[in-house]
Amino acid sequence: MKLSPMKDILEMAEERNIAYGAYVTVSYETALAAIEAGTELDIPVIFITGTDCCDLMGGFEGTVDTVKRAMKAADCKVPVALHLDHCRTYVECVQAIQAGYSSVMIDGSSLPFEENVALTKKVADYAHCYGITVEGELGKLVGEEGNFKVEGDPESAQTDPDQAKEFVERTGIDCIAVSIGTQHGVYVAAPHLNIERLKKIHDVVDVPIVLHGGSGTPKEQVQEAIRNGIRKINIATDVLIAVANSFEDMKQKPDFKYNTGMFVNSQACAREFIKGKMREFALMD
After folding, report:
1. Which end of the chain is more exposed for a tag (fewer CB within 10 A), N or C?
2. Domain count of the chain?
3. Is 177 flagged in the annotation as binding?
4. Rg of the chain in Å (alpha carbons)
5. Which domain, by its residues, includes 149?
6. pTM above 0.90, yes or no
7. Per-residue b/e over 140-161, b at no fewer than 16 CB within 10 Å?
């Protein structure tokens, strides 16, 4: 089974003026859930894995193998991309590419602008030699992502449109992650996406725009962002919540037993949750 470059999937989203979700996977069950959902709806699947997720599946090679086994088991007929999310180092991006990833994100957003440009361009130059998609990030999202935590005022950390244009042009990235008011993890206050800022970014960049922190963001705001240029939306926390809730719900049943049925049920719950998000992002609901 062959993984698809994420760039190809995002170009399809651009043509259709919709977005595709990028869903966290931490196991064979969560990978199979997303592939089954995509196969049923005929919607491409993008997986996001931080290095912490990869540790649960045996490293980069183990993660690639896990996803490919799930593709084979589901008789997958839709494009599937495997994306390394929020990687902070050139070395780890190279390792993921060599292991078989079809896309990587180099996250230099915490660095000064010039350092972010230099690091991101270095990764893009290497990755493009192998036809691998590269995502860069400009601006910061408050909240937790894997083992990293960002604190501060969300508004002041949002992406500057003029800098975004320069960043894309100088780095050669295939897509750009921007900050317009979402947050990693669970929201502590209701989000308000800065659609006007998004419109300005969309006007000046010529690559697909990515929205991180999609979990918990109201559907109406998400779909407005899609109509104004967002082409990929990352969903991690909400997938894990769906799995966790499935265990809690089963434990309330009178005939509950600790057995493998717990994991069969969690896979089904994750699949149904992801199907709902796929429909939402494709503007089907």
Report:
1. C
2. 1
3. no
4. 18
5. 4-280
6. yes
7. bbbbebeeeebeeebeebbbbb
